[in-house]
Amino acid sequence: MSTAAHSQHNYIKIFVILTVLTVIEVAVTFLGLSKMTLAAILVILAVWKAALVALHFMHLKMEKKTLTIIALVPFALCVFLILMLLPDIYPH
Amino acid sequence: MSEAVAAHGGHGHVQPAEKPLTPESWGKLGMWLFLAGDAMSFGALIVGYGILRYASKSWPVPSEVLGINLTAMMTFLLIVSSVTMVLALAAIQDGNKAKFKKFMGFTILGGAIFLGLQAYEWTHLFTDILPKYNLTFSKDLFATTFFILTGFHGMHVTGGVIYNICVLMAVNRGRYQAKHVEIAGLYWHFVDLVWILIFTFVYLL
Q: What is the pTM of this model?
């Protein structure tokens, strides 16, 4: 990491974004939005924050692409798990 | 490498068939594989929680029962400790051991305070909140899923704090270098990442 000074600056920027997104998350719960709208906004914000942590703090952005694919496998399995379980609860 | 050279008749300069995914250290690849497996455990628990909640006839509103002010603070705390972790890594990569110790100390402190707040929250829930809403840990899915998810995560934080203390001591003794700190950082950021998801799915939604 030859550009240490630059990356440190970047870390602080990511920290500020993460903090702002957390404040927005808490704030939107007080807006009295409909359940579905609120859920959609919160999930997008959570995935956004998680991606920022993985890409910048865990350096996935700088790593080989294969490592990102390894990191995404659990998410693919979660989607699969949801699809497999949906028939059990669908009548609800 | 010497075995590979020997196997090829000792001509030297044997090129590996593939370049490693993480040229810096195999430990880094090992940690990523462990985290992918760990993410599957968390993923199964979170999906299980979601399915049970969706299938339930009634479910308390989490933000009313649990309260989100303290947890928002805890989320912020973990994000801060993640930042101090990357700053500690940047410091040791620059060869600045004193700065590394300072930021690593902050990271450990952040994790310890998080655990303290979680212990406070759990005590408060057990003694005041659950009886008030007529909920029982072992009988209501709301309480069971909550304690299993946050408990599983809390154990990861506990492990992370111990891990970070070990790394700090090993660097102190000169046994660990920047690459070891980076691997410990991966684990710590993962714990932060999972909490971000738990905060949304368990507390806010």
A: 0.88
